[in-house]
Amino acid sequence: MKKAIFCWSGGKDSAFALYKVLQEKEYQVEALFTTVNENFKRVSMHGVREELIERQAKSIGLPGYKMYVKEGSNAEYERNMEAFLNEQKAKGIEYVIFGDIFLEDLRLYRENNMAKVGMKAVFPLWKKDTKELADSFIKNGFKTILCCTNDAYLGEKEVGELFTKDFVQNLPANVDPCGEHGEFHSFCFDGPIFKEPVKFEKGEKVYKPIEIKVTKDHPPITGPRANGFWFCELSL
C-alpha cells in the first residue's frame, strides 16, 4: 500500500475521510497530524484542546503528530508545513490525506504546498454531496459535537449540540450540512474508527468577537461576514 499521513482536525470530515481510507486499503496511514496554536495549545479554529486530539489518536491506534504555529500567518504555516513534510518524506511517505470536500481554492493551495516537497495530496471525500455525507456519517455510527459556530450562520444555541439527523434537517438553508464554508466546526468522539469513545466533559459556552482572517489554509467565509465565534469548552 502507498504510505501516507493524515491531516487530522479532530472533526467529523476528518473522521469520515479516515474511515473511507481505512476501508479502501489503498493507503497505509502511518500517522495523524494536526495544526495546533502553540500559544493556546488548541486546534486552530476549532478551539479544541490538544490533549483531546491526543486521546483521539490513541483510541484510533495511530501516532498523533502536532505542527505548532504561533503567528497564524500563511507564511508561518507554509514554512512549518514544509519542514514537517520533509521529515515525513524522509521516512518514505509520499501522500498526505485531507478531508476537504468542495473548496477549489483550498484544494489548490494544499496541492501546491505538497508539490513544493514532492508529495501528493489525496481527498477521499472530494465532490461528494454534503447532505449524503452527513447522513452516511451518522448512519455509520459516528458521534460528534459542535465545538465552534460562526455567528454569521449559527450561534450559542447550536454550539455544544450533537450532530444528529434532526440537527442536520433543521439547519438554516444557507448552512452547508457539513459546514464546508466554515459555518461550524466539530469534535468527533465516537465511531467505527475508534477502539473506545473519547470521554470528555462539556463546559461553558464562550463568545469571542474577533476579526476574521480569511487565509488560504482555512475555508473562506463566502456568506454573511461573522462578528465572532461561539465556542463550547471541552475537556478531559
Short key terms for the protein model shown above:
236 residues, alpha/beta, Rossmann fold, six-stranded mixed sheet, four-stranded antiparallel sheet, 10 strands, globular
Give me the secondary-structure topology.
Elements: E1 2-7, H1 12-24, E2 27-37, E3 42-43, H2 50-60, E4 64-69, H3 74-89, E5 95-97, H4 104-116, E6 120-122, H5 130-139, E7 143-150, H6 165-169, E8 184-190, E9 201-209, E10 228-235
Parallel strand pairs: 1-2, 1-5, 2-4, 5-6
Antiparallel strand pairs: 2-3, 7-8, 7-10, 9-10
Strand segment count? 10
Taking the sheet with the most strands, its summary is: 6 strands, mixed
CATH topology of the largest domain: Rossmann fold
Quaternary class: single chain
Structure explained in plain terms:
The protein has helices at 12-24, 50-60, 74-89, 104-116, 130-139, 165-169, and strands at 2-7, 27-37, 42-43, 64-69, 95-97, 120-122, 143-150, 184-190, 201-209, 228-235. It is α/β, with parallel strands linked by helices and 236 residues long. The chain folds into two domains: 2-122, 3-Layer(aba) Sandwich (Rossmann fold); 130-235, no CATH class.
Summarize the structure.
With 236 residues, this protein is an alpha/beta fold. It has helices spanning 12-24, 50-60, 74-89, 104-116, 130-139, 165-169; strands spanning 2-7, 27-37, 42-43, 64-69, 95-97, 120-122, 143-150, 184-190, 201-209, 228-235. Strands 1, 2, 3, 4, 5 and 6 form a six-stranded mixed sheet that branches. Strands 8-7-10-9 form a four-stranded antiparallel sheet, covered by helices on one side.
